[in-house]
Amino acid sequence: MRATILFALAWILAGPGGVGAQQPVEVERLTDNLQLIRPSALPRTVMLALTGSDGALVVDFENPDLETFRADDAVAASIRDALERAGAWPVRYLINTHWHPDHVGGNERLGADALIVAQAETRRLLSIRQTPWWLPQGIGPMPAAGLPAVTFDDRMTLHLNGEVIELLNFGPAHTEGDAVVWFRNAGYAHVGDLFHGFENLAPGDDMEGLARTYAALLETLPTGTRLVSGHGPIEDLSQLERQHRMLVATLAWMKAELEAGATLERLQEQPLPAPWNEEFTGSDGMRKQWLGAIHRSLEERSPSDEEQLLALHRRSMDAHLESDVDKLLAAEGADAVVGSRGEISRPSIEERRALFGDYFGVTHFEVYRDMVPPAVKVSKDGSLGWVIVQVEASGVQDGASGALHEIKFQSNWIELYEKRDGEWLRVGNVSNFAPF
């Protein structure tokens, strides 16, 4: 099957009279009380409606205007007509799969009467002014009436209309706040713009995160679950698994090539790793767009907390090899606690600077490296981080008589970091030491 890349928002840019022109909205029954609400011309936004005595629940609300969060009157009327035909009007619950304008067109209109639910980052992103790469003139904030009133972090369960609805988030992917809406009894999951099928490859702000989300969905959703995408046909998990394998292979290939000095332009002229290049036969422009999306994600995304902590650890290791006190203490908190050789102390920055200045003045490391990969852990609220390491070191040290002698030791330590004003600071260190 040949892949065609249709970016989730690109169709909106066509403007009036193009693919963004208003089209009839179809209603397709999936189960007794779960229905698909779909404009007749894809890739317009696909919605779901769950009906029953607890009130209508709707997933997403189409809006073909990229520059505003509010669907215009004609669009809103056509969607209301479809929802009325589905028995899903008035809407009591509205779930946003993410913050993009083409999915939240009903928030402001329905917010006074419907309970809006979204992942926590979606509410945050809707409440601020943003200038994404695809809309340099900017958008937002959403008026207060349209902001989600209920948010969740990684998982939330709703029991409505005889259905168990799981809301799932596996971290940044298409956006920072994607929500998968899984109707467990019905066997359908609305995945927003995380996945559009193989005919419409979905881009993401974080393509590595998208790969992790695919893996988590494949592990979480039972065999037989059908996937409803924001802009494509209903697919099964086999298509998601296949796209996951292609994404993982392409990411690994591009990262290796970039580390070797390749440019995006050069990569776009090369074939993808086998067998994935065959998916783009006759669509070289589409292949280049796919690679461009991955390249943009790898080059522009912010490092995760775990990556930031590992970078601080690597800087500490380099500081020992370079005898650089400033580099070693650059991320040190003024109130750091140190536990070493049976003592606990709170030396000031000046005291630590003097201590390490004296130490590096007589000690010169030739080897200072991790014996095993460091273990990194971040608290659920993102405020604390731990780095657990095992290091081996060797070098020479000036003795009291001025003669050099060889040193060789292993050391284990745990570093505690606290995030303050968006920056990680080391606030604690506990270590042991064993010569060998």
What does the model show?
This protein is of the alpha+beta class and 436 residues long. The protein has two domains: 10-251, Metallo-beta-lactamase, Chain A; 305-435, Roll (Nuclear Transport Factor 2, Chain: A), CATH 3.10.450. Helices cover 28% and strands 29% of the residues. The protein is built from ten helices and 20 strands. The chain has helices at 73-85, 107-110, 120-126, 207-220, 237-259, 264-268, 284-300, 305-322, 325-329, 349-362, and strands spanning 25-29, 34-39, 47-50, 56-59, 91-95, 115-119, 150-152, 155-160, 163-168, 180-183, 188-190, 226-228, 235-236, 332-340, 343-345, 363-370, 375-378, 384-398, 404-420, 423-435. The protein has a seven-stranded mixed sheet. Strands 14, 15, 16, 17, 18, 19 and 20 form a seven-stranded mixed sheet that branches. A hairpin with a 5-residue loop joins strand 17 and strand 18 (384-398). Helix 4 (207-220) runs antiparallel to helix 5 (237-259) and helix 5 (237-259) crosses helix 7. The longest helix is centred in the middle third of the chain and has 23 residues, at 237-259. The relative contact order is 0.08.
